[in-house]
Amino acid sequence: MSNELEFTKAIEALHNAEHWVIEAQAQADSQRFQYAQQHLQLANQLIHKARTLPLTSEQQTQILHATEQLRHLQETQAAVQQIHGF
Q: 70 near 43, Cβ under 8 Å?
């Protein structure tokens, strides 16, 4: 798989995770919470993999931003879990 494709998959996985974290937060539904967990794990794996690839300077910056956004989403997910007891 090409570096560009790996990079794109990591960014898409982050966007999917963000969607499901927002859904879990808004709906307080255990199924949505589980979907968010799964998407966060996948995004984490793909972002960490992308960080090891030879990327352009712009892509490296985007991956660093994605890493930070992922951390914020994980914190939000942890807060949702505490509030709703999932």
A: yes
